[in-house]
Amino acid sequence: MYSDEFRRQHGEQWQELLTGIDERYGTVAGVTLLDARTAPVGEVACVVVRYQITRNLLFSEEKLTVCPEKANTQMAIAGHEMVRLDNGQKTAAGITFTEINVVSVGSARPSIEKRTPLTVTPVAVRNAADEFYNRMSAEQYDAIYEASSDDFKASGSRDQILHFLNKVDQRIGAPCSAATLVQEAVPETGDLMYLSYVRKCNNEDIRDGVSWKFMHGKALLASYYLNSVDGIDLPLINAEKQENSADLAETARRSTENFYRKISAQQYDAAFELASEQLRAPEKREMVLGMLKQTEQTAGTCDAPILAETSYTTGTAGLFVELSYTRSCANSGISDHFNWKIVKGEALLDGYYVGGLIK
Q1: Mean pLDDT across the stretch 276-298?
Q2: 31, 217, 246, 272: which is deepest, by most CB within 10 A?
Q3: 80: domain range?
Q4: Is 108 within the bounds of a domain?
Q5: DSSP state letter for 283
Q6: CB 37: neighbour CB atoms within 10 A?
Q7: pTM check: above 0.85
Q8: Is residue 110 included in any domain, yes or no?
């Protein structure tokens, strides 16, 4: 299924690699499509398809660059990239692409581009996540609290956290189907791992997530997130009142407009000041500013952004409004995804993801 060019340059070596992976870690037991995007290769339109691959002893993310063969109308794999999720090791051959991607540590939409070695295997983390959902189904909120990390317990009082978990079950409408894992991510610090799931529940289909902290060889619950498209009646942990979701979205939109104005004027430092405490950490400053400059230089002049999607995330880490925009730019059509953390009625940028830019 690989292209003639790929097989001429890498065929024998790549076949040995794939065979060795199967022999050592087991054959593929699960495949989850993450996304697919067009990518130009000269004058040819290829497609980069990204998957999450599960083997008995290995979890990886793989990208296939699929292009039309010159000799016929069929498509063939012209590039293949594999990244191990346990240690970040990457192997690639053929035509590959890298997207510009920066998201803050602790945001509701963590980055999956930069990984560092973990102290707990993904299997241990997934087992801990399975146990969490089993306890949620059984309404064993006390057991969840007792087995959690200090970070989780510090998000509110014991009563507030137990009340929050109970309200989550009421909000989604138990019972729910088994949770299906759709994404794993490790932020740049390497001390957390995020798992994102989808579940079919009595009231609605939901997407939620858990993050884990690694302490003394164990995976301890660090935070829990619940995502919603409407934001109505979202449970909160430490808040005096539930604000109107439309008002929260308007606050986030105003902050986004302010962000775009500063970026258009190349006021990158001013845009950085819109960030939350975590994203504005001194050690992140140069990285974030460099990413903002590179994004604008690579994209070229852009038309006005168009709001494509609004969603809400609540959890033990706080309340977020996520906005997705599309922009038609001189060099590329791109998508911007913002995570705005709501703090005392103000929206602070806690995560920013850019899709569509080919580096």
Answers
A1: 82
A2: 272
A3: 4-94
A4: no
A5: G
A6: 16
A7: no
A8: no
